[in-house]
Structures are given as C-alpha cells and as structure tokens.
Specification:
Structural class: alpha/beta
Low-confidence stretches: none
GO molecular function: biliverdin reductase [NAD(P)H] activity; riboflavin reductase (NADPH) activity
Radius of gyration: 16 Å
Oligomer: single chain
CATH topology: Rossmann fold
Strand order of the largest sheet: 3-2-1-4-5-6-10-8
Distance between the termini: 41 Å
CATH class: Alpha Beta
Number of helices: 5
Order of helices and strands: EHEEHEHEHEEEEHEE
Largest sheet: 8 strands, mixed
Shape: globular
Organism: Methylobacterium tarhaniae
Protein name: Epimerase
Number of domains: 1
Length: 216
C-alpha cells in the first residue's frame, strides 16, 4: 500500500480522494490549512495543517511519501479576480518533489485546461470563459510547469462536478479525439485517482473524466 500526500484535502475532490484512498487501504497524509477539522476517523489518516504556497510546509509534508495528489480549489467568489493559486502552488511543489525524490504526481486540473480547451463546444465556450477563464489560464500555467518537470505525472481533467456517491460508471477519455465535456461525481474522480496511483496506466498523459456528456 502507498503512502499518499493529498494537497487540498479538506473539501471537494481532495476530501473524496482521502476517503477513497483510506478505503483502499492506503496511508494518507491530508494536507490543508484546515486539515485539523477533517472529520474522518482512520488509523491510516494523518492530518497535516499547512499552506500549499509555503516551501517549508510542502518539504515537511513530502517526507516518506510515495505519491502526491494535488487537488486545489478556489472559492467561486475568487474566480472573477486574478487567480494565481494553481501555478504558484505548483511552482512550490514541483521542485520540492524533485528534491525529495518523490516522482509520482496526479494533478487535478479540469476539462478545458491545456490542449483540451479546443474540445469545448461552441455553446459552452463563451460562458466558460466568462466564469472560469482566469482560473483556467492559471491551470494552463500549472500544467505547463508540471510538463517541464522530471516527475511521473498524470493530469486528471474532470468535467462538471456533482455530488453524491461514486457510481463507477464514468468514462476515461484518454485520446484528444474523444474529449468532451460532461457531468462527473467528485467521488468518481477520487476513485479514478486512487486507481491511477495503483496502476500508473496514464503516466505522462492527460485524461478527461465524464459520466454523462453535455450538449455541445
């Protein structure tokens, strides 16, 4: 079983990944500023309060780790101003991982990031740019920094996120010609992340995850 560091572990996909990894028998170091408030009980869980922009915090969190899941998010209210969290945190994480010799990174970005932007349908393009443009420009920079690294990376690009339990009936779209937007439960994204860490099936590749496709 692996020892995982989950960055952004207090909510959303990060918290779902903590739960999925624990259920699969892995040891998890849950990293977030509010990690102490994570309401899970498991002997394999370590809550690790820290700031993803702090090099000393990240360096400490990497000690003894086999793989890292980067699952950062920003509040909706912050989407309409400058967004730098994704790239700034990645500029801290990547060199720290390289220095520590931790090679495996699964980074959650999103459908519409990087080379998947061309797959956004014409009906979705304008509202996507208006709402998510600044954040996804920063996610582009995040992915580019990781691509330039020596790490064994996988980009997980979920579609529109929903709540609820994992269904196990999602699609893993790993060819650019198959990329499209759709709905996907956060719990399903987490299940994929844990499986990807276990198998390494998509090292050095981006994948889009959806359950139901949206109209283009």
């Amino acid at each position: 079983m692996a020892h995982l560091l989950v960055i952004g572990a207090s909510q959303g996909i990060g918290l779902e990944t903590v739960q999925a990894a624990l259920a699969a028998g892995h040891r998890v170091r849950a990293f977030a500023r509010s990690a102490g408030k994570i309401a899970l009980s498991d002997p394999n869980l370590e809550r690790f309060p820290g700031d993803a922009l702090s090099a000393p915090d990240i360096a400490s969190a990497l000690d003894g780790i086999d793989a890292v899941v980067q699952a950062l998010g920003v509040p909706v209210r912050d989407l309409f101003g400058p967004v730098r969290l994704f790239s700034d945190a990645t500029n801290v994480l990547v060199p720290a991982m390289e220095k520590a010799g931790v090679r495996r990174l699964v980074a959650v970005t999103g459908f519409g990031t990087g080379d998947s932007r061309a797959a956004i349908g014409p009906l979705q393009r304008l509202p996507f740019r208006l709402v998510f443009g600044r954040a996804y420009d920063d996610k582009d920079a995040q992915e580019m920094r990781i691509r330039r690294s020596s790490l064994d990376w996988t980009f997980v690009r979920p579609g529109v996120l929903t709540g609820g339990p994992a269904t196990g009936r999602y699609q893993v779209l790993d060819r650019p010609s198959s990329w499209k937007n759709g709905l996907i439960a956060r719990a399903d994204v987490a299940q994929f992340i844990v499986r990807e860490i276990e198998t390494g099936d998509h090292v050095g590749r981006p994948v889009v995850l959806i359950h139901h496709a949206l109209p283009v």
